[in-house]
From TrEMBL, chain A:
Residues 270-362 form the MucB/RseB C-terminal domain. This is MucB/RseB C-terminal domain-containing protein. Residues 1-29 form the signal peptide. GO terms for biological process: regulation of polysaccharide biosynthetic process. PANTHER family: PTHR38782, SIGMA-E FACTOR REGULATORY PROTEIN RSEB (PTHR38782:SF1). It holds the Pfam family MucB_RseB_C. GO terms for cellular component: outer membrane-bounded periplasmic space. GO terms for molecular function: antisigma factor binding. Keywords: Periplasm, Signal.
Automatic annotation (TrEMBL), chain B:
It is found in: Cell inner membrane; Cell membrane. An anti-sigma factor for extracytoplasmic function (ECF) sigma factor sigma-E (RpoE). ECF sigma factors are held in an inactive form by an anti-sigma factor until released by regulated intramembrane proteolysis (RIP). RIP occurs when an extracytoplasmic signal triggers a concerted proteolytic cascade to transmit information and elicit cellular responses. InterPro entries: Anti-sigma-E_RseA-like (IPR052383), Anti-sigma_E_RseA_C (IPR005573), Anti-sigma_E_RseA_N (IPR005572), Anti-sigma_E_RseA_N_sf (IPR036147), RseA (IPR026279). Residues 120-171 form the Anti sigma-E protein RseA C-terminal domain. This is Anti-sigma-E factor RseA. Pfam families: RseA_C, RseA_N. Its main location: membrane.
Length: 367, 190
């Protein structure tokens, strides 16, 4: 009975599964275990290089195509957050002028010579009080409901998908392995499926699906160490156009707020250090600043591995002795501990054990 | 042999179209390989894989084949008078048990009540002592207050840190940019 149904199921599987592609390192090592003789088609190194190459193609597509994507961010236990995300390449000034002969002063800053500076990007959170972000070249303007508009000098919009993953993947290769796992169907398109795994297994892992034709991202899952979904970004609609979205052509530099210049902090010598960090994580910033809400003075370090940022705060402990505080706020882990009259805090999208490890590596030099 | 397996592996991976599917029909070993490859692929992709071990299924199928067919007729369910009598006696014994339980419960409730009534009765008689309770209440309130305040303060602090972290993450890329020389002329034309 079981034997008779098996081959017919197989034939069905021929059509379904021939869509798939299995070419990961693990696949081949596992296959070699399963079949006692080593019939490995490709050496694993080649496969990994391919995954990195494809990811570079993704970054090229994300940075150079005209597209509009609707996407939804899901987090277990909270409301889905929908966004609209547009990206485009502004045509040369000549084209812009012929299109808008009648419109008032020309946005001269819109078309500088460097190619990155004529890209435009737009991100709008669709539910609740709107938060719109517009990027023109390297200038990012924020329009939020409860604040006056402001602008920052930035190369990208800090959106739901970690920007280095899809824009500058070279920045994450030190900390993460990228593996091409196979093919599947996402957002109605044939998609390539990647896994992004931290080299020492101390950070969340990611599953990324990109359109196999255009290489634009379609779906991103952030997974805990146990493999549970922590956060999900799903593109629900993706439109690629030849020319830039009409809204971008109406943009005028004069309407955008002034860029706020932030002076890079001087070299601070803090009296504490972090003796060892997870693989690929680096200290990218340190300073002393006041918290916006409470006005408390904190000593601060920012760590980054290219994909996630981790903040470390050191401040005077309150009068009431406190136990450790461990909170997961959305997908961020918050760990706070009082040691020697100081409150140490680690915040970031990292698993709690890793936050604890970083916490333990903070060395306070006695004054 | 290994050549054929390699072909199959490539075919399953979608990398080769040069594989004769008809080979599979006759070759049990290749069939097993085929299934293993797909199972591995699915597991790695994180697709929902229901691992049905075919060897177990086969074993069950074999076992079912070996199972002798039951030919003996079932016992008829005709009731005799004697059966009824037995069941009646059974019922009566059940009644007895239930009655016993009920009696125990009544006893229990009675004793419970008597315990309860004694302090209950004394409470209204000792009138002036009742004045103690509001005092103790206000005391507990004063103890609770600093705790709550601490909790509120802690929450405020946590919130402040979380907000600051978000801001720092947002600003991080700015610092990357300002160090690049090409951005400077971009900001100046205004």
């Amino acid at each position: 009975m079981g034997l008779r149904t098996f081959p017919s199921g197989l034939l069905r599987a021929v059509f379904v599964c021939s869509l798939y592609l299995t070419s990961s390192t693990f696949a081949f090592s596992a296959v070699s275990q399963a079949s006692s003789d080593n019939s490995i088609a490709k050496p694993p190194a080649v496969v990994e290089a391919n995954a990195q190459e494809v990811l570079l193609k993704v970054s090229h597509a994300v940075n150079t195509l005209n597209y509009e994507a609707s996407l939804v961010v899901f987090r277990p236990g909270s409301e889905p957050v929908p966004y609209i995300w547009r990206h485009g390449i502004l045509p040369d000034m000549a084209v812009t002028e012929s299109d808008h002969v009648n419109s008032s002063p020309k946005p001269k800053t819109l078309a500088p010579s460097t190619p990155t500076n004529n890209t435009v990007e737009y991100l709008n959170s669709l539910n609740g009080p709107g938060a719109q972000v517009v990027r023109v070249g390297n200038k990012v303007s924020f329009f939020e409901a409860d604040k006056p508009a402001f602008a920052l000098q930035q190369s990208h919009i800090h959106g739901p998908i970690p920007h280095n993953l899809i824009r500058n993947p070279a920045a994450i290769f030190a900390a993460y392995d990228v593996v091409l796992v196979g093919k599947s169907r996402v957002t109605g398109k044939a998609a390539l499926h990647f896994r992004v795994l931290s080299k020492d297994g101390s950070r969340y892992s990611y599953a990324l699906w990109v359109d196999s034709e255009t290489y634009l991202p379609l779906k991103l899952n952030t997974l805990t160490l146990k493999g549970e979904v922590l956060e999900q970004v799903q593109v629900t609609n993706l439109v690629i156009t030849d020319s830039v979205h009409a809204d971008f052509l109406k943009l005028e530099a004069q309407q955008l707020p002034q860029v706020r210049h932030i002076n890079p902090p001087k070299e601070f010598a803090l009296k504490w250090s972090i003796t060892s960090l997870p693989v690929g994580m680096k200290e990218v910033k340190r300073d002393i600043h006041r918290l916006a809400i409470t006005g408390e003075l904190v000593e601060y370090k920012l760590l980054s591995d290219g994909l996630v940022d981790v903040s470390i705060y050191l401040q005077k402990a309150g009068t009431v002795p406190q136990d450790d505080v461990l909170i997961r706020n959305q997908s961020e882990t918050f760990l706070s501990r009082v040691r020697d009259g100081l409150q140490l805090t680690v915040v970031g999208k990292i698993p709690a054990p890793t936050a604890n490890k970083i916490m333990e590596m903070i060395a306070l030099s006695s004054t | 042999m290994s050549d054929r397996q390699e072909n199959l592996s490539a075919f399953v991976d979608g990398e080769s179209a040069q594989f004769d599917i008809d080979q599979l029909q006759n070759d049990k070993e290749l069939q097993a390989k085929w299934q293993n490859y797909h199972l591995l692929g699915d597991t790695l992709r994180g697709d929902a894989v229901m691992v049905a071990d075919t060897s177990i299924l086969d074993a069950i199928a074999d076992a079912l084949d070996d199972e002798p067919t039951i030919l003996a007729p079932r016992r008829s369910k005709r009731k005799t008078v004697w059966d009824n009598v037995v069941s009646l006696s059974k019922q009566s014994s059940q009644f007895a048990v239930a009655a016993g339980v009920a009696a125990v419960m009544i006893l229990g409730v009675q004793s419970y009540n008597t315990e309860q009534t004694q302090p209950f009765m004394t409470a209204p008689t000792s009138g002036p002592q009742g004045g103690l309770s509001p005092v103790s209440l206000s005391q507990s309130r004063t103890i609770e207050n600093p705790n709550r305040q601490a909790v509120v303060e802690q929450r405020k602090r946590i919130n402040a840190l979380l907000v600051d972290h978000k801001q720092q993450v947002r600003l991080q890329a700015v610092l990357d940019e300002t160090t690049e020389p090409e951005t400077v002329p971009e900001g100046k034309p205004k």
